[in-house]
C-alpha cells in the first residue's frame, strides 16, 4: 500500500509542474493566482498522502487544514489587492 501512496504522491508532484508553469509564464495576473491556488490545493492532498506514508494521518490532517486555510486567505488577499489596483486582467509585466 505504501508503494501506491508513493506513486500517487510522485504523480501529484509531476502534475504540480504544470501549475508551476502557469505561475511562471501566465499571461495575466489572474492566471498566476489560479496557478498558485492549484499548487496549494495539490499540496494539501500531498500532505495527506505523506501522513498515510508515515502512518500519522491525525497529525498531517491538522497541518493540511492549516495550510489550506493559509492558502485560501493568501489567494483572497492577493486577488483583492490586484482587483483594487485594477491590474487583475492586464498583461503581465514579465513579457
What does this structure look like?
The protein has 95 residues and is an all-alpha fold. Helix content is 82%, strand content 0%. It is built from three helices and no strands. Helix 1 (2-25) runs antiparallel to helix 2. The longest helix has 28 residues, at 57-84. The mean pLDDT is 88.
SSE layout:
Blueprint: H1 2-25, H2 29-54, H3 57-84
Helix pairs in contact: 1-2, 2-3
Query: Could you tell me the radius of gyration in angstroms?
Result: 16 Å
Terminal CA distance: 46 Å
Report the sheet with the most strands, covering strand number, pairing sense and barrel closure. none
Let me know the number of strands.
0
Low-confidence parts lasting 5 or more residues at pLDDT below 50? none
Instruction: Based on Cα principal axes, name the global outline.
Output: elongated
Number of separate structural domains: 1
- Percent helix range: over 70%
Structural class: mainly alpha
Along the chain, the helix and strand elements come as: HHH
The number of helical elements comes to 3
Mean pLDDT: 88
Share in β-strands: under 5%
Transmembrane segments: 6-24, 36-54, 60-78
Pfam families: MrpF_PhaF
Subcellular location: Cell membrane
GO cellular component, one term: plasma membrane
Short description:
Keywords: Cell membrane, Membrane, Transmembrane, Transmembrane helix, Transport. With 95 residues, the protein is mainly alpha-helical.
What are the main properties of this structure?
single chain, 3 helices, elongated, Multisubunit sodium/proton antiporter, MrpF subunit, sodium:proton antiporter activity, transport
